[in-house]
Known about the structure:
By secondary structure, this protein is an alpha/beta fold. It has helices at residues 3-9, 12-20, 29-38, 43-63, 74-79, 83-95, 110-117, 129-138, 189-193, 284-288, 292-298, 335-343, 361-368, and strands at 100-103, 121-126, 145-149, 164-167, 202-206, 220-226, 229-236, 246-253, 256-261, 278-282, 302-303, 311-313, 322-332, 347-355, 374-383, 386-394.
Amino acid sequence: MDDQGLTQLLSPTGWALLTALPPYDESRVMALSERLRSEGLDPVLVAAALTQSRLRAKGHAKFGDFADGMLFTPAGLEQATRLTVAAQHARRYLAAGSTHVADLTCGIGADAMTFAGVGLRVLATDLDEVTAAVATVNLRHFPESQVRHGDGLALDLLAEGVDAVYADPARRTSSGSRVFDPAAYSPPLDAVLAVREQVPALGLKLGPGLPRTAVPDDAEAQWVSVDGDVVEVGLWFGPLAPDGPGRSALVLHDGTSHVLRATPDDDPHPPVGPVGAYLYEPDGAVIRAGLVGTVAQQVHGRLIDPTIAYVTSDALHDHPTATAYRVLDTLPFGLKRLRTYLRGRDVGRLTIKKRGTAVVPEQLRHQLDLRGSAEATIVLTRVGGTQQVLVVEPV
């Protein structure tokens, strides 16, 4: 969306049009566009309104019904923090005693809205003029907040009365490709990290692929997953990391939240042994945080292979950051052997999980050609260095 389209959207006519549009339906967009233009509406306004309708529909996945009152840019929606995760961020700032947060890279204002929603004063900035304008619209219900078009790193934070800082550096190029080098973020990671010399309460949202070796020694690094999807790693400094530096995983699932944290007595090299009665699949955030050994320790278990993030135990333990399965059988991997095994049990519906193998599940399912009435779950993985099939059932 360009500035002309935004200007027309923010006019009384534009806002009324956007409010009156029916639920977004891709199959009807062309006809709706032609009808609106035939009624005399400016094609620029029509295009902008329909684009916003599409983005609002997509935004429901992150913002729920709040999306219906927001404006978006495609890039801003892509990088915006999910509402459930942004709420976790806001709680950190509240718990740290923060009162005035500077969001140096606010984008469309997702985190800034959440900060303001819990009563924090917010000073939000963005380098892109249209994006800053969109954030201004999204923060319109919070009079104690302000959005500025400009470079957040150029702010005199102390003069502004800021006592905490947040940043979510852009990690995509203008063409949309991902940026993996922290020095190529916008702004560069080191430039943002330097802010903590002025304001120790600094929080950063980064991509979950950040190597653990790139985490500063004074940070708490927390990898976050939402319903099994690892969405970010947060770096927290000073009072925003009350437990001090370290690694943790935050698992959000079905309205619940669980934190797994590394402790000094964790075994960085958990034992490896044979498959027991139960298999545990650690959440992706746990794996990214390097805490599989912590799960193994807590369920009194072991790894099935030194290079595979599956844990096995001889007893069942309720662990909030790992999914447990009962192991029904194990067999060496082989197509004919597996087909015979499953057909002998009348299996027709098969869930295939894999880790540490090049097998493509859909291809394997086609090759097995199962037609029975029962269902089963198998795990294709390495056990002690050899390819195995574990037949399991959820507990």
